[in-house]
Write a structure and sequence with these properties.
Blueprint (H helix, E strand, L loop, with lengths): L5 H14 L13 E6 L11 H19 L3 E3 L3 E2 L4 H9 L4 H18 L10 E2 L3 H16 L3 E11 L4 E3 L4 E2 L2 E2 L7 E10 L5 H6 L5 E2 L1 H11 L1 E13 L3 E10 L10 E4 L4 H5 L7 H12 L3 H6 L5 E10 L6 E7 L10 E4 L5 H9 L17 H6 L17 H14 L3 E7 L4 E2 L1 E2 L9 E3 L1 H6 L10 E2 L32 H4 E3 L6 E4 L3 E2 L1 H4 L3 H4 L27 H14 L4 E4 L7 H14 L11 E4 L3 E3 L14 H8 L1 H10 L7 E3 L1 H23 L11 H15 L3 H18 L5 H15 L4 H10 L16 H6 L1 E8 L2 E9 L4 H10 L1 H4 L9 E5 L3 E5 L2
Parallel strand pairs: 1-2, 1-25, 3-4, 10-26, 13-15, 25-26, 27-28, 29-32
Antiparallel strand pairs: 5-6, 5-9, 7-8, 9-18, 11-12, 11-14, 11-17, 13-16, 14-15, 19-24, 20-21, 20-23, 22-23, 29-30, 31-32
Bound molecules: ligand ANZ and zinc ion.
């Protein structure tokens, strides 16, 4: 068996496709647009990871299939090149990040070319290109003007290693998403995007989009909607009488009568505000101090629930008017609800543990002998469980009880229904160099005169027409080192931050933070469609939008762009990793919604369909450099060719589940590809003889299955089916006449083309075709052939042969019987009603026993 020369074949066709612009798409002329989007990578210095080859080539296989089915498939690619990841690497090797990026970019694009993806290279983009980040800055300004970007002092996540703040979404199990260092909290003045004003829509739209279910669930949980009641507890001090009442948030108002004490978070304002009334201030202060030095997550997961009784302050139960003790305890979170809870130890585990520790009373409001009944159990059985120890509410079931208690509280002005969300505003500023400078300035003289665009305690914006605000040029790699002061690297570049205020022409100072790379990636899919437009970020209704940004572009061109946006937006199919569930996928939805509200675009959800792919492992473990088990795709491309690697990756497992890499498996697949090559070579050498046509039923059936599986991205079963076809072909090859062999091999090659695009193209041309195989149409299953491939089944009734019936070769008993009953001359022998017994030998004989 010959090994084919994959090196020359692959490079030849890659060049051919580029020379003839095979993958360049006419966006405006397209009649059946299919936007096949893959998540652009953060380029790392090591280059393309085999995991990325897995996903990109899988998405490409799908895209090629859709193109063969008549769609205008747009498959762009770019680099999410700004960000801590790249910058940390440049710092490590002490090189200028601009230079490192240039090098990495080149390497990435070369590697990706080698995978044979049908990328439209005329539309690539990099987030660090000023032509791109100018518009990222522009989006920042639009959000600011719409009241969706603001600055505030808050306790934020700080990565001590990256020396920058991070968003909540970038903290994964208390660690920095980029470097894995444990995060700390730090109170700082930061820029936020008001994602919380979209909470309800972000939630309810999830029902309307076709996304992987687990990703939707992840977003729902992250948004964390809780419907409940805010209940007011009067407070009074033994010495000084009535104080400000305490408000608590509860999802379980029906358990109110079981509340035996109240708990506030160490950060609750009462502790500072009512200092003079606290009898044991020193003890309380010491506890608070200790609690504040522990991270909230540690506090939350701590098994032992600790706290301190606040002496001198007493709470009043809103129904019974009983006096309840007030505690401060660190299991109550400072940034959720009112930082205070009504403790119901009989039904809430945390309260139970606390009550147990401090010997507090436990009052069960469910009619039962048990000590503890979890609230989720009450909710599940709300219609059956009856209330006890609940005074005037006794005997009601919990459904009625909830209503009555809420009604009572509202009448007494002691409660109101309210909804809480866990989602917080998105912290976007970073104290780093490698990102788009936030295009805002601080001008003292404007602020003092309280005019211009500096009306409030907010900085002003840099004029849109003067964007981009360029990053300062670096002298050496060390210039970007974050110093941990809480100020970004840009604060060390006076030429950068000293500016003339565009409004009053006095001296002003630029913001020196940059925005996070997730801002860059929140809108890149819009830009791919408009990379050739310098005057606008994307096709949007700039004439009628709320911000009245008037780009220097002719009306005609603008309308062309708007039409293009309408044609291509939103993205048809987006495929990527689950790790972005609450990061990129949430942020992109928010930005799209904001642009929609501002009137620029006419869709509010960016991705109609989102499919989450699986991950590949090595010997069951995640690949990582430190474990030394990373597969370098280049090596395998060299040895076996990209086609073999692609085919192997498709075969590894279901695309949404990933698989485990094995060199043996890889080699086996390469042998299979060589076998395909040799089958075609032997066909090309063969004579144009005659013969009798062979029944192609098994082949047609395989095509049907492959078509079906391709639609669902079940590539592994497609490959298995291709193997079946090869076996079938080899068995029948010698019987088939030349024309039939040719037609079978041509159809097979078309099916192979999305998997092994280079070799398929090579063999197609060898078969003397003059145009690319990738422009061919996907084979249609010829239903008549399926019918010709019938079986002739001898029908016996009560042991006597009564005739022959034709059915599909794999027809089931029911179908055969149905056919028989249509043929009068056989059917007349079958007694009406259900036959007593049927013996059916598939595809051969059916014996019907009447009695
Ligand atoms: C009384 C109660 C009884 C509660 C019961 C639950 C079960 P979710 O669903 O996550 O919104 N809670 C309120 N604010 C809190 C805070 N700042 N820190 C810690 N816990 C807080 O949780 C709402 C429940 O969490 C609230 O309902 C409150 O406890 C507690 F059988 O009130 B519950
Ligand atoms: Zn000014």
């Amino acid at each position: 068996m010959e090994n084919y020369d994959h090196r020359s074949i692959e490079s030849r066709w890659q060049k051919f496709w580029e020379d003839y612009n095979l993958n360049k798409i006419d966006l405006d002329g397209a009649s059946k647009p299919f936007y096949n989007l893959m998540m652009f990578p953060y380029p790392s210095a090591e280059g393309l990871h085999i995991g990325s080859v897995y996903t990109f080539s899988g998405i490409d296989t799908y895209g090629r299939f859709m193109r063969m089915r008549g769609y205008d498939v747009f498959e762009p690619f770019g680099l999410d090149g700004f960000g801590i990841h790249s910058e940390n690497y440049a710092i490590k090797i002490k090189e200028n990040i601009h230079d490192v990026s240039k090098r990495t970019q080149k390497h990435y694009y070369e590697q990706l070319r080698r995978t044979g993806n049908m990328i439209d290279w005329s539309r690539k983009l990099e987030t660090y290109d000023p032509k791109y980040y100018r518009w990222t800055q522009w989006i920042f300004l639009q959000l600011f003007k719409a009241g969706l970007a603001y600055r505030k002092e808050e306790s934020v996540n700080w990565c001590p290693s990256c020396k920058t703040v991070l968003s909540d979404e970038q903290v994964i199990e208390r660690k920095c998403e980029r470097c894995g260092t444990e995060i700390t909290k730090r109170s700082m003045n930061q820029w936020f995007f008001r994602i919380t004003s979209f909470t309800e829509r972000l939630l309810s739209n999830l029902d309307k989009i076709d996304w992987a279910e687990d990703v939707k669930t992840g977003q729902r949980n992250w948004i964390g909607k809780s419907e409940g009641e805010e209940i007011v507890f009067e407070l009074f001090s033994k010495n000084e009488g009535v104080l400000e009442p305490l408000r608590v948030f509860t999802t379980a108002p029906e358990t109110l009568m079981g509340c035996t004490f109240l708990v506030i978070a160490p950060e609750h304002p009462l502790i500072i505000g009512e200092q003079s009334k606290i009898g044991n201030l020193a003890e309380v202060d010491a506890y608070v101090k200790k609690a504040k030095s522990t991270s909230e997550l540690d506090r939350q997961i701590a098994k032992e629930k600790t706290g301190v009784l606040i002496k001198g302050i007493i709470a009043i139960h809103p129904v019974t008017k009983a006096e309840l003790p007030l505690y401060v305890a660190d299991y109550v979170l400072s940034n959720y609800g009112n930082a205070a809870v009504m403790a119901v130890p009989a039904h809430d585990e945390r309260d139970y543990a606390f009550a147990h520790n401090y010997s507090l009373p436990v009052v069960n409001v469910v009619k039962t002998d048990r000590d503890f009944v979890g609230y989720s159990e009450i909710k599940l059985n709300a219609a059956q469980y009856t209330m006890a120890n609940s005074g005037i509410f006794d005997g009601l079931n919990f459904m009625e009880g909830r209503k009555s208690i809420i009604g009572y509280l509202e009448k007494e002005k002691k409660g109101r229904t309210t909804t809480l969300y866990k989602l917080r505003d998105w912290c976007v500023s970073r104290q780093r160099y490698w990102g788009p400078p936030i295009p805002m300035i601080f001008c003292k003289s404007c602020l003092n005169r309280n005019e211009g665009y500096y009306k409030e305690e907010m900085p002003g914006w840099w004029p849109e027409e003067n964007l981009p605000v360029l990053l300062p040029v670096l002298k050496d790699g060390n210039d970007t080192l974050p110093d941990g002061s809480g100020k970004g690297a840009l604060s060390r570049f006076p030429d950068f931050y000293n500016v003339v205020c565009p409004h009053c022409k006095e001296d002003a100072i630029r913001e020196t933070d940059v925005s996070d790379s997730f801002v860059d990636s929140s809108w890149y899919f819009l830009r791919y469609l408009f990379t050739e437009f310098d005057e606008i970020p994307f096709g949007g209704d700039f004439e009628n939008s709320r911000s009245h940004f008037l780009p220097g572009i002719s009306r005609e061109k603008l309308h062309e762009a708007i039409d293009r946006m309408k044609k291509w937006g939103p993205v048809t199919s987006y495929i990527g990793g689950r790790e972005h569930t609450v990061l990129h996928l949430l942020y992109a939805r928010f930005i799209t919604m904001a642009l929609y509200d501002m009137g620029y675009i006419n869709f509010e959800e960016p991705f109609t369909k989102f499919y989450a792919h699986g991950l590949i492992t090595k010997d069951g473990a995640k690949m990582s450099k430190s474990k030394g088990n990373v597969i370098n795709p280049d090596e395998y491309f060299d040895k076996f060719g990209a086609d073999s690697v692609r085919m192997y990756l498709r075969f590894m497992g279901p695309f949404d589940q990933g698989g485990d890499w094995s060199d043996t498996g890889m080699k086996g697949m390469h042998r299979f590809i060589c076998k395909i090559y040799n089958i075609y070579q032997s066909f090309l050498r063969s004579e144009e003889g005659q013969g009798e046509m062979v029944n192609t039923f098994p082949f047609e059936k395989s095509i049907m299955k492959i078509t079906n599986d391709m639609e669902q991205l079940k590539f592994n079963t497609c490959v298995a089916e291709i193997m079946k076809i090869i076996n079938w072909y080899q068995k029948n090859e010698l019987k088939m006449p030349y024309i039939q062999r040719r037609s079978v091999l041509e159809e097979l090659l078309i099916i192979l083309a999305p998997f092994i695009p280079h070799l398929a193209e090579e063999l197609w041309f060898q078969m003397t075709h003059k145009t690319s195989i990738h422009l061919e149409k996907w084979p249609k299953v010829d239903e008549t052939k399926l019918y010709v491939s019938e079986a002739k089944i001898a029908v016996q009734v009560d042991g006597k042969t009564r005739g022959v019936v034709s059915t599909l070769i794999d027809a089931e008993q029911e179908q055969v019987l149905e056919e028989i009953m249509k043929i009068e001359r056989i059917a007349k022998f079958v007694k009406p009603g259900k036959p007593k017994k049927i013996i059916y030998i598939k595809g051969k004989v059916m014996n019907i026993v009447n009695s």
